[in-house]
Every structure is written in C-alpha cells, then in structure tokens.
Design brief:
Strand content: 5-15%
Number of helices: 7
Order of helices and strands: HHHEHHEEHH
Strand order of the largest sheet: 1-3-2
Number of strands: 3
Helix content: 55-70%
Structural class: alpha+beta
Distance between the termini: 26 Å
Largest sheet: 3 strands, antiparallel
Length: 124
Amino acid sequence: MPDTDEFATNLMDDMDPQLLELIQTRINSFIKWDLVRFFHDNPHTTDTADSIARYTGRDVRTVEPELIQLARDGLLDMEDLSGLRVFTLAGDPDIRELVAQFIAACDDRQFRVKAIYHVIRSLR
C-alpha cells in the first residue's frame, strides 16, 4: 500500500505533463507565477525590473533575479536598451502558447491547487 506522501504526489502530478514540467522547472515560485501572468496580460510590455516590480506590487530586489531566471529559462526576452536592462514576453510562438495554456489552466481551481502544491514543494 503506498504511503500518504506518495499518494499525494501521484494525485498532484495528475495534470498535463507539459504544464507540470513548466511548473516544476520554470514557474517554480509565486513571484515567477505573478510575473508570467503580468506578461501574459501585457504581452507588448517591454520594461525595466524596477517598473515591473512597481506594476506587480513587489520589491525590485526580489523581482529582478526572478525576471533574469525567467529570461534564462526562455519565457522572457532580456536585452539592454541604452544601458537599461529590459524584459518582455518571449517572442517565440510556442512559448507564448505554453504561457497561454498555463494561464488558462489557472482558471480551474483544481489545477491551481496542484500548481500551488508543486510551487511550495519546490521552495523546500
């Protein structure tokens, strides 16, 4: 008989494998989740970490490293414009579709519970 932790893990892993991988490897913090939602809702935004932090109601010291990691993971594009580092949603149509699928899935309460479980698990 499987133990309770194994049962919970199997239950929580019951989601689209592509979205599960996205949560486990790229959107693995609540800050990143907020940032991905922000860029999904504002797909033409190109701005600095300071401005994005202000728009999302977060401290730039916590937002900037997460933006950089999202860029390294391919979800955002990062570039230097006149000496300022700016971020925008990745232009790759496959990435944009994956982000759109994630945001749409977040409308489902059961998906959100599972996603929250995986984010919390990754923070341990």
